[in-house]
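Justification of computing resources. Each target in the renewal requires a structure prediction run like the one illustrated here; the chain below, 276 residues long, is used simply to show the kind of job we budget for.
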Amino acid sequence: MVVGPMRSPYPWTKDTLESGKSPARRESRSTNETMANRLHEPSPPLPWPRRAVLVALVGLVCGCSSLQAPRDPAQETSPPAASVRPGTPDEARSAEDIARANPQISRRVAHAIEHVLRQPSDHPRAAVLDFSVHSTTPRFHLVERASGRVLQTFRVAHGQGSEGSRQDGHAEVFSNVPDSNASSLGLYRTAETYTSEAYPGLAMRMDGLSPTNSNARSRFIVIHAARYMEPESWEGNRARRPGLSDGCFAFSNADRDTVLSSLQGGALIYSIYEKP
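Resulting structure tokens:
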């Protein structure tokens, strides 16, 4: 019996022994690398019919009631929420628009309303006081900022220092000087309310925002009611016109209540005068 050279049951060679790696290990490593490469390869997109069926099956398994295909999240955009502040400068109407909406007011008042609406304010209302007209004429215009519409118009007194030489109910002189007892022109902002000791009921302080009325608070220029503004008080007197204040915006009791409730809390008031 001839015995040939014995073959090792292990497929190792001298090279594999020297490298310390078996063919099985190299084959395993090669297989692992191939699988890893396949995992990193992008999967081809499923055809739409198969994707729809897959979505339907997932919906049934998860208990969903809708079998519609999912929408692209990038397309699900909500419109931005509108944030509109009434009466901001960008929304202010022109004097022409204001005049058309309020045919009862003069062009002068329309331009004054346009100006006050262009001033930044969070208050929904404003007012324009036109000292150009006679004190018997309603001349304090309450305005809605969002629309530029005049809501109401009231009689208001001017200061005795503003009467001028004619003393006929027309204001002619305006001053920001203390103790002048004159009315002041310019832009005001309403401030806090308080109980007046000089005049019965509530009154409201104002801050002057213009160089022509910057002393309004220190001069105690306020909004208050006065007996001499009641129609029964002045319609039967010799002058047949309302009385005069010390520079304050004086109203009848009922009008004072409306003005305070409408303008308290930082509303703007713009007082103007145009020489005839």
